[in-house]
Model the fold of this input.
Amino acid sequence: MSNGTQKVSLKRGLNLPLLVLYGLGVTIGAGIYVLVGEVGVVAGKNAPLSFLVAGVVVGFSALSFAELATRLPHAAAEAVYVEVGFNSKSMGLIMGLMVAGAGLVSSAAIALGAAGYIRTLVDLPSWLVVSVLVVGLTAIAAWGIVESVLVASIMTVVEILGLVAVAGGVVAVQPEILAGLPHVFSLEGGPGVEAILIGSVIAFFAFIGFEDMDNVIEEVEDPPRVVPRAIAITLLVSLVLYLFVATVTVLALSREELSGTEAPIALLAAKGIGFGAPVVALIAIVATVNGIMVQIVMASRVLYGLSARDALPKFLSAVSPVTRTPLNATALIGAATLVLALGFPIAILAEWTSQIILTIFVFVNLSLIKIKLGRIPTATPSISVPVIVPVLGAITAAGLLVISLVG
Done:
């Protein structure tokens, strides 16, 4: 380091498997452990169709993010996309702050959910559980990107195996339920298309998270090759898993049973295989804890990226020579998460998260449209989608946003 002034860069330690596990860790969080029940109540036996519709809608925006990641490979990704697409630094800053805000609000909501699960096992004050969780996970996020993602990866594998074990166990114990499979994907005798679409709005939020991979792109090995593949694999695995779990759930549990529980997967385990509900509760805790950490990592990288582009104070882009992580940005995100978690109820935080992210999706898709049609100079993309893809991405995200706001 010459004269002690050379800037320390982020460590490029994420290969394709690690980035996929990071993406799955953000996407397949605790939400599916609750959302499958809520979608089942709304859409009944057609709940899997709601997840399928949501997956298709998310797919348009995912393709837009994949192309933009190779055109503009920077941290604070969404901010960069909007700044370049609209030729406006102020819009880019607003978008970046919205992304960081979404991470903050989301991690605060998840922290409250995790505290609720933990307090069913240990009788401690909610504020204490939340504080220990957020402080501890912020420390892990500051430890190092590879270390953080390795910890998140282990928890992600546990989450996925838990879902597969429960749903697969039900099918193994009660194979006769598969006789109802044709009815699941048939509209005849179902709640109707409107119910499926309303269910898809709820299911949509189970897919949120893939976009966070763009924000750690400066820590990815060979981003043009790795990032688009990681996004595609993450969404495909998530969709297949959600369809499997949702299908088994509506085959094994009635609409009335789903409406009477806040822990549908635990109920599925208890009724379907006769045991395992406490284990499912523990896995749900792992899922929530994982979600907090990956959101802290993402939001801190957004602040780092904005600071590196001189949009925020420079101290936020300072990288520790020891951990090779942005310690100041990570500490700020951790502190803000704790304030939100202790100051607002989970329902409000979850609603804010959804609305912020849908707004981000609209503007990111519009940015890609402007970049493509305006032939705005960027790096040569390793993947290029037809312009109809971001058009559909913007329209569908805007539609879900309107439904969320008026619903």
